[in-house]
Amino acid sequence: MELQRKTIAKAIVVVFVFNLVVMGAGAWFAYQEAPPIPDEVVGPDGDVVVSGDAIREGKTVFQKDGLMNHGSILGNGAYYGADYTADALDLKVQFMRNYYAQERYGEPYDRLDSADQAAVADVVKSDLDDSYEGGAIRYTAAEVYAHEQVRQEYVERYHEGDHERGVPVNMIDSEEEARAFADFAMWTAWFSHTDRPDGTHSYTNDWPYQPGAGNDATAASMTWSVAAMVLLVAGAGLGIWLYKSVELPEPSAEDIAVPEPGDVSVFPSQRAALRFIPVAAGLFLAQVLLGGLLAHFYIERAGFFGVESIFGVPILQLLPFAIAKTWHIDLGILWIAATWLGAGLFLPPLLTGYEPPKQSTYINVLLGAIVVVVVGGLSGIWLGANGYIDGSLWWILGNEGLEYLEVGKLWQFGILAGFLIWAALAVRGLKPLLDREPPYGLAHMILYAGGSIALLFTAGFLFTPETNIAVTEFWRWWVVHMWVEGAFEFFIVAIVGLTLVSMNLLSRRSAEKAVMLQALLVMGTGIIGVSHHYWWVGMPDMWVPIGSVFSTLELIPLVFILYEALGQYRAMSGESFPYRLPFMFIVASGVWNFVGAGVLGFFINLPLINYYEHGTYLTVGHAHAAMFGAFGFLALGMVTYMLQLSIDAERWDGSWLHAAFWCWNVGLVLMVFVSVLPVGFLQLETAFTGSYAAARSVAFYDQPLIQTLFWARLPGDTLIILGTVIYAADLVRKRFVLRQSADDPSVEDMAVAEGILGDDD
């Protein structure tokens, strides 16, 4: 069948509105159904154990001191330290068992015989298997004892420091704050084992797995995992039928006049856009170096190859895991985003032959502003986490302390302003196309893709440090997941479409139809697919079926993106095609998108698997393959294309980039499949046969086999670092062979622009 662009555009609008309705209703339910923060928690004699204000203060400490990038809460965060919810629940069970063992038998629990241990364990499970009907939380005497013991444990661990756990001294500044953090962690443990009113399972759907507290996978996890598998087969069949039924241009190299790089003039604005590349490369290099340090911290938790003991340099105190992890994540986002912004400003002259007045000046201003935001944000993280920004400004100027949203709100606002400025500059550059094409044209699509990134980022401004953690997580995942599975995927297909058009490999109208169809599939699955992040964080039960369905369907558009990328490469891989190297990166992006986001993402998002896997190294494998593999390689492919157009053909040398390409790919394969995923599968087994806390414990990580697998990551990490060093060095080398921009280029100077502007029939 022949689908018109207008028809697909209408379908996209319908899907977008549907997404807004579903997620808007979800936001309302998030506030209504979030686990309650009580006014107080009281013991059996009515004495107050902890107040609601102390719980809120504990969440503030959790964010201010960057604890989410040392360990995790409700399974979300870093996997180096404990998951605080699972750890607090595990400690609660242990201390309650000891309390009853001493009370009844006068012996510690581990010294009792099996029959007495079973009797004590049943009493503890009975205490914890309770529901909440409102008012104050009422503890048993055993729970009061356990709460006090956990407070002391957290003071010793997170205030006094614990090098065996990789915790620096004064990670939390004071004993009082450490106790407040313990109160917060114990509250999350409470709602993880306490049933909802009139419900049969806890606020977290009985996560984390802790048999001693009565927490086990719910029937819905099994039911919807089976439904997801059935849906995948049905959805794949429907998707293939739709894709085959819609008439789209097959990539072909026949009768294509691909412009040679030397035939295209370089505009002043494009030279300005090229300046984003070395800035992004510096951020990229810093990111991979920090990644190597983070990987080694799992082996030597208080040092780096003996530097601390040999030279007396306190690595753990100077650069704790939490700060290094925060910078590593933020640098990854920033270098990819900076590269995409540069590419988005480089491409318009190729499509229009048009240079707006003072465009290069404005691009330089944007780059300068981005540098200020990056330096300010990264500095604020260190200053805030080390207590130099105190009072109410810590989360404005310093470290907000939420994974992927670590930088202070001022710097987040600067990032949002940067996206808006970029959109304005892109509109200026694409104006000839925007004026001539309908609202669903290719130039509009790239603006919609970039604009959606900025739009979703606003969700990060809808909470404060005092907001309930469940509601905070609801909005945080709007930014994180909807970027990755929605806006970023949309941007990928749009930017690749623009690239094909700029090479004269597709007509604009054909590219528009292909981009719109893939955007329809991406938006139709990826946005509501965020709901699989809500299964265990205290959100309503409705997200289990919704998340299962849409997380399953997320795989389908990734298959089509991979299929298109491979088809394009086969058609264009002849010796006469001058842009083979950029296309190698774009195809690699499609492959890794399918493997990382698709295959690994689908596997860990089955509810029954996710129940035990949530927050383990399987997620690390998925994240690295999807983020660097999909989005990073696309960014690097655009860099290669921009550089090739900006250097005289006789002076172009892609050998170093080619070497870097294979270093990155081989390194990523070794890191993910030789080290990270095997650790993840062993964690999954430990969680399933023991408890989730055991799978995240230092004892698990210290096992000889796990340590060997951590060492096995070294070759892969080394290759990734080597590839990045080669890449950075090549950029320095190429800086001296860039062509000068034309003083006043016209449409006639642009081999591409003439065909694009005339493609309106």
UniProtKB/TrEMBL annotation:
InterPro entries in the record: Cyt_c_oxase-like_su1_dom (IPR023616), Cyt_c_oxase-like_su1_sf (IPR036927), Cyt_C_Oxase_1 (IPR000883), NorB_cytochrome_c-like (IPR054309)
Pfam families to which the protein is assigned, alphabetical: COX1 (PF00115), NorB_cytochrome_c-like (PF22085)
Keyword annotations of the record: Membrane, Transmembrane, Transmembrane helix
Keyword 4Fe-4S annotated: no
Biological processes, Gene Ontology terms: aerobic respiration
Gene3D superfamilies: Cytochrome c oxidase-like, subunit I domain
Protein name (record): Cytochrome B subunit of nitric oxide reductase
Species per Swiss-Prot/TrEMBL record: Haloferax denitrificans ATCC 35960
